[in-house]
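Private note to self, pasted from the team thread so I don't lose it. Backbone tokens:
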């Protein structure tokens, strides 16, 4: 779903241009030396994020039934990527259920179809995709060595493959470094395979202890990442073409809890932590009000 309002985007661009001069440019790389403690971002960015100039176009409150609606969500299945250890199961309450208005993804240490761990992953691919706007996910992450929860957006891999399709990581956390929250952008030119990905990590005291709001404002000019309503990072369209900026096409949402893997498993997996839960309170998407 793509929507554009020229006046709204123009006002956003003016405000962002003024703010950019006062903001340091985030250094590239996940968990880089530039990672620092979370602190409030520019007031104008927080004001834009909270502005009434957004219109809600899609939401999931997880209040209906005991499992996600198949009209909105797809399950991923199997041992899929990044050398992760979990088998993503389908429609299995032990790994994914709705309860008390929350989505609960549970990682378990158990034998399952050749794997030693199980978990779940949901996507909106083919059900809901959008271009530009604001998205917010209120979630409570798990903790423990080996966990790797993520909230991310992905373009259509059928049109050029990854990373050319573009990937927006709204939140990642690895259990061996539990107080860092990562916000990362991947494109054809900037990605972790080339070690050129663009991102920033912030340090948050016990981020797993409560729910937090992970947000994104996506415009034709930039991606702005938010934590609890405060801007923490950005990725700017430098005008150098698709390899640098593939974000002018729809993306879909993925919510998953990985275990181990190329990043999450760098320090092994602590089997004493299981079961672990990744809880999501809501997902809401807005676009420019008409």
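Design output:
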């Amino acid at each position: 779903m793509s929507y554009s309002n020229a006046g709204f985007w123009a006002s956003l661009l003016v405000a962002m241009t003024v703010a950019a001069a006062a903001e340091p440019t985030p250094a590239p790389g996940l968990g880089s030396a530039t990672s620092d403690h979370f602190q409030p971002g520019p007031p104008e960015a927080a004001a834009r994020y909270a502005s009434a100039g957004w219109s809600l176009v899609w939401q999931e409150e997880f209040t209906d039934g005991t499992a996600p609606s198949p009209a909105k969500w797809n399950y991923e299945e199997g041992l899929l990527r990044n050398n992760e250890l979990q088998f993503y199961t389908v429609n299995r309450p032990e790994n994914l259920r709705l309860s008390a208005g929350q989505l609960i993804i549970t990682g378990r240490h158990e034998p399952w179809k050749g794997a030693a761990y199980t978990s779940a992953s949901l996507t909106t691919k083919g059900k809901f995709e959008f271009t530009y706007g604001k998205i917010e996910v209120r979630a409570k992450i798990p903790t423990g060595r080996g966990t790797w929860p993520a909230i991310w957006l992905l373009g259509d891999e059928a049109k050029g493959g990854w990373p050319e399709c573009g990937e927006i990581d709204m939140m990642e956390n690895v259990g061996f470094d539990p107080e860092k929250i990562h916000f990362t952008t991947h494109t054809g030119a900037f990605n972790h395979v080339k070690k050129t990905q663009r991102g920033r990590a912030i340090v948050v005291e016990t981020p797993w202890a409560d729910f937090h709001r992970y947000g994104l404002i996506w415009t034709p000019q930039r991606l702005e990442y938010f934590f609890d309503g405060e801007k923490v990072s950005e990725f700017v369209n430098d005008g150098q073409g698709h390899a640098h900026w593939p974000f002018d096409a729809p993306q879909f949402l993925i919510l998953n809890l990985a275990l181990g893997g190329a990043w999450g498993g760098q320090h092994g997996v602590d089997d004493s932590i299981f079961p672990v839960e990744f809880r999501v309170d809501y997902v809401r998407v807005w676009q420019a009000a008409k």
